[in-house]
From TrEMBL:
Belongs to the glycosyl hydrolase 28 family. One of its GO terms (molecular function) is polygalacturonase activity. It comes from the Eukaryota. Gene3D superfamilies: Single-stranded right-handed beta-helix, Pectin lyase-like (2.160.20.10). It comes from Acer negundo. Keywords: Glycosidase, Hydrolase. InterPro entries: Glyco_hydro_28, Pectin_lyas_fold, Pectin_lyase_fold/virulence. PANTHER family: F13O11.17 PROTEIN, OS07G0274300 PROTEIN. This is Polygalacturonase. One of its GO terms (biological process) is carbohydrate metabolic process. The lineage of its organism: Eukaryota, Viridiplantae, Streptophyta, Embryophyta, Tracheophyta. SUPFAM superfamilies: Pectin lyase-like (SSF51126).
Length: 449
């Protein structure tokens, strides 16, 4: 049994590690807390780089308790691999934190326990919650005011509530306002405006923070100028040619708004494939969900609930198709996971992490000169030396040839889409040499027969 404690920072060490190995139990009796003025049990203040992990369990002893765990102003925290259960109210509360990860956490409370949010986040940025199981009596994850860049992937929720469409709309309120200005006031095409918003949201994910929030305070004329710069970025992505970049970089007003000097059309050209995949993910995981109520109004069409909204301009040459389905405001973004009806998969947050980028997006097509045999080990060794030990996921040489025949091509599967851009550096074809033999590399494109 452990009484209330408060761990105060800042600490000299940048990585404070707490191991949860046994079972930590809160006192069951209310009388044991008569002298406790804190509203939380285990409190961490200003502990940057906090790492908490272990196979143990934190038991808040149910309705006699307050929030089980409270993190305040703890930047770059890392909570992983432990169980927390039976909190009376909030199991984990995150407040005023910048940077953090919660992974492989098991939160467990009865379905009829009142107000037992799993994870409650407020006034925090850059928090990634993933690969966890949350069973509680209220919201699995509650995102409150003052939050930005909260990524949730691979979280199983149930019993408990997922994130409703209404909550997503509140979270993306400013994004929705700017989108409405583009379409209704500035008369931009709805499909083109979806792509523009996807570019801006992706830039925010890449660290160009508060772009849309800053933009919302500008005049319509300036928003129009910024939208045209975003369209220039999209045009740059569609071209295999080096863009004709003006002296101001082609992103002058966007750069000025962000007070950044590293943003230009060349940024998109040299990160072409990372940008395409990132924008596509934002388009399908954010834009397809947060504008479902206002798109039919803007387009002047009638769409029934749970029916797709027809969008001219899709499928798109680069970003493929997007399914935008009109939903009721109390609709919760969930779907069955793992074949267990009681456990529901929570979706609907900003962008997919690197490890769920499709294999095709991370694949290069290699060709070799006839008469100069290149082996699988030579291919792997070359690109491992050039781009790092973990750069290569697999090498698949030409198949269905005789043992003595020379492979003329191969597929190089990389672990990161960013390595594709590093290899090509804006070119359509890149040339490499291994042991005096040439290898030509281009982006792989699946051709289904």
């Amino acid at each position: 049994m452990l009484q209330h404690f408060r761990f105060n920072g800042p600490c000299k060490s940048q990585n404070v590690k707490v191991q949860i190995l046994g079972k930590i139990v809160a006192p069951a009796s209310v009388e044991d807390w008569t002298d406790c003025k804190s509203e939380s049990w285990l409190c961490f203040y200003d502990v940057h780089g906090l790492i908490m992990q272990g196979s143990g369990t934190i038991d808040g002893q149910g309705s006699a308790w307050w929030k089980a765990m409270f993190l305040h102003s703890c930047n770059n925290f890392d909570l992983r691999e432990f169980t927390i259960q039976n909190s009376q109210k909030l199991h984990i509360s995150i407040n005023n934190c910048n940077g953090g990860s919660i992974s492989n956490i098991h939160i467990n409370s009865p379905a009829d326990s009142p107000n037992t949010d799993g994870i409650d986040i407020s006034y925090s940025t850059n928090v990634h919650i993933h690969d966890s199981l949350i069973k509680c009596g209220d919201d699995c994850i509650a995102i409150n005011g003052g939050c930005s860049n909260i990524n949730i992937t691979g979280v199983a929720c149930g019993p408990g509530h997922g994130i409703s469409l209404a909550e997503l709309h509140i979270y993306h309120r400013i994004d929705r306002e700017v989108f409405a200005r583009l379409v209704t006031t500035l008369m931009h095409d709805p499909a083109a405006s979806l792509l523009v918003l996807a570019v801006w949201l992706w830039l925010e994910e890449k660290g160009f923070s508060s772009l849309i929030s800053k933009m919302s305070k500008l005049s319509n004329q300036m928003v129009n100028v910024l939208a045209r710069e975003a369209v220039s970025c999209l045009n740059c992505l569609e071209s295999d040619q080096i863009p004709n970049v003006p002296p101001n970089g082609g992103m002058y007003f966007t750069s000025r708004l962000l007070d950044r000097t590293d943003l230009s059309l060349l940024f998109f050209y040299h990160n072409r494939f990372s940008t395409i995949v990132g924008v596509k993910n934002v388009l399908n995981n954010v834009c397809a969900k947060i504008f479902t109520d206002i798109l039919p109004l803007m387009m002047g069409i009638q769409v029934r609930l749970n029916q797709p909204i027809p969008m001219a301009g899709f499928p798109h040459r680069l970003f493929g198709d997007v399914e935008i389905v009109r939903r009721a405001m109390n609709y919760v973004e969930i779907q069955a996971a793992g074949g267990r009806d009681q456990i529901l998969q929570l979706w609907g947050m900003p962008v997919m992490p690197e490890n769920v980028v499709s294999e095709d997006d991370r694949t290069m097509f290699l060709t070799f000169s006839r008469g100069f045999r290149v082996t699988k080990n030579e291919v792997r060794g070359l690109f491992t030396r050039l781009y790092g030990l973990d750069a290569v996921a697999d090498v698949i040489m030409q198949e269905n040839i005789s043992d003595d025949a020379q492979p003329l091509f191969a597929r190089l599967i990389l672990n990161s889409i960013a390595t594709v851009d590093r290899m090509l550096n804006g070119r359509r074809i890149a040339k490499f040499r291994v042991n005096g033999k040439h290898i030509w590399a281009r982006k792989y494109e699946r051709r289904d027969v």
